[in-house]
Amino acid sequence: MENFARRIAVRILATVLLIFVTRVSALSSGSAVAFPDPPLEVMVLTDVAGLGDKGFNDVCWQGVLRAKQDFALKARFVQAREQADYLPNITLAAQNADVVVTLGYLFVDALKQVTPGFPGTRFIHIEGDVTGENVASFDFKSEQGGFLAGLVAGLFTKSLKVGVVSGMDIPPVKAYVNGFKSGVKTAEEKRAKAIEVIVVSAGSFNDPVKGKSLAQALIAKGADVIFRVAGNTGIGVMEAIADRQGVYLIAEDLDMDAEMPGKILASTLKRMDVAIYQAIEGIVQGRFEPGHHWLGAAQGAIDLSPMKYSQQLFTPRDMEWIDKARRLLKEGKISVPKSDAELADFQIPEL
Amino acid sequence: MSIARNQHPIIKQLEPLVATLYALMAGMLFCIILAYFLGTGSFELISAIWEGAWGSPNAAAATLSKLTPLLLTGLAVSVAYQAGLLNIGCEGQLTLGALSAACFALTASQLPRLLLMPLTVLVGALAGALWTLPAMWLRQKRGVHEVVSTLLLNYVAIYLADYLARGPLGDGSAMARTAEIPLESTWRAVCSVGTIGVTAAPWAALIAMCLVHVWLYRTCGGYEAGACRSNPLAARAAGIPVNRRQTRSFLLSGALAGLAGALEVAAVHHRFYAAFSPGYGFDGITVAFLVNNVPGWTWLSALLIASLRAADKWLQLALGISPSTILVLQALLLITVASRVRLPVPGRTRRRSLLGHLFGYPEQTRQ
Hints:
The complex is a heterodimer of chains A (351) and B (367).
Chain A: H1 2-30, E1 41-46, H2 56-71, E2 74-79, H3 86-96, E3 99-103, H4 108-114, E4 122-126, E5 135-140, H5 142-156, E6 161-166, H6 171-191, E7 196-201, H7 208-220, E8 225-229, H8 234-242, E9 248-251, E10 264-270, H9 272-284, E11 291-295, E12 302-304, H10 316-330, H11 340-344
Parallel strand pairs in A: 1-2, 1-3, 3-4, 4-5, 5-11, 6-7, 6-8, 8-9, 9-10
Antiparallel strand pairs in A: 10-12
Chain B: H1 9-38, H2 42-54, H3 57-82, H4 90-107, H5 113-130, H6 133-142, H7 146-166, E1 189-193, E2 196-199, H8 201-218, H9 220-230, H10 232-237, H11 242-269, H12 280-290, H13 298-310, H14 312-319, H15 324-338, H16 354-359
Antiparallel strand pairs in B: 1-2
Helix pairs in contact in B: 1-2, 1-15, 2-3, 2-13, 2-14, 3-8, 3-11, 3-12, 3-13, 4-5, 4-7, 4-11, 4-12, 5-11, 6-7, 8-9, 9-11, 12-13
């Protein structure tokens, strides 16, 4: 009797399994997920940080969204899970889209391997030098944004100590930091006081917990203005500052002044969205410009936020200096140092 | 022994297969529920997972390349488990294995390819094995449970590797990576499907699995290791040096985890990146426990997890679903298996669950 029951149980189990197996195989052969064919298919690839970082990736995505609306495109994004995903993700995107947008320096190695294999696909890359018939890559003079941030921080600081929380020490971040130091130097001369710059690195763009503890350490050391150049890690910096009296933030890449009104002195703007929008526009209108492009204040790609909520914290004279610095940068009259060597030779501009 | 009662040997052999199939069925059930909450069709979700993992040659290649580290770390966990130990430290062993392999390939680059290629991965395996020794010493001499020591040694290894790749062993680019290893030490694609090549690494992992299976079930040494798990006191009474046998199994476990890291460097990245692993060492625990820690079946669960992991980009593309959905699914699968929510199987006997193993762990072996 026990044997009989057992046999029945096995049979029921086998039937259930059989149904599942046939069901799955029927699905896989029959209804593959098909892509409809819109006029132009744009695919955006982010590194492990993904969208929602209130910085780099979000700015770029805004540009894509604007282009999507204006040119009736189809736009999607894929976030990588690990380093090993970059190559397969780019390949997958290149197979399924007309335009592939890769965001960030970490994609450079993998992108160089893929682009020659897809001559019919257009690639737009932000940060890093990738060349090819079908690639337009864009780099930004981050140091100019850093300079403006440094000037604002240097003019504002009461404790004469300012901090920087950087994500990884990759070239674009390094440029930001050196630009920041030159901006602080300029403010030092204006105020005729020595200002200390403390730079700390989180070693990751995706570690808000570490960002928070680093920011707290900077505050403990006496810094009253903190410049975040840290992607998603910067979210933690904002948290650390939110509940501290007398400590202020300067944000990077995106206008975040409204996120914490009055607590954010200014945001440096890096208009990657404009670069991406214009590149997509070029593709739509049939005048794609491959090659590596450097964009800066002169092209309107680097700027400072209007400081809507923080203006009253500065004297009119300070604001005049800041405005003048913006104007001079736009006219190309200030050369801002990018590397450590250039920083040593930095000529403080006349404001 | 209560296990032998009325149990047909074939059914006992197939138990890991049944466990995985149950997990698969449970997974489909969860997919249906998840799909409801995500607002897509459940069959669309399941077919998107299938399509993303095996739908195109490129997808299959990506899945296979994810299979390698999962299979090896799963094997590492199950080998230790078969000797009565839990190795939670695969992540650290894998990281140090990868770093050592990269450094060896860079320093010994003048060796001929025939020597350099195998030596690179062997050095990685050796480093992984050596990293288990502190945990073993702490267990046998100081009575520190290996779950605690291996878990904490992970962080020592990860941050050590991070420091070394950033500083003394880095390529100077401030990106926390070593220089590219010489071409002679890399595993090249044996067949190219689409644009992504498939290297011999997945097959090497499968061979390693077969060897471990033979060692464990067909040799005297493997039998002794098994005896250390099922009854350490009896094993000791029978003259088996329990501590030494356990150390041997743990060394093998660490070597397999180190091998996983070395193969990632040699076959995928061609250099060491700090934090290149998204937690393969911890996924090894999932892989091993999905099939009851039977090494010979780890290929099945590794294949399942690798397929899920590789499918996440397709989920984003085809359905616009967050890739974290896959992680949720994977966690649900593990909980299902761990809590043994199962249909009755003829002759199945009650065994302790994963949670039971983690928290109620009576076998304390001190000689």
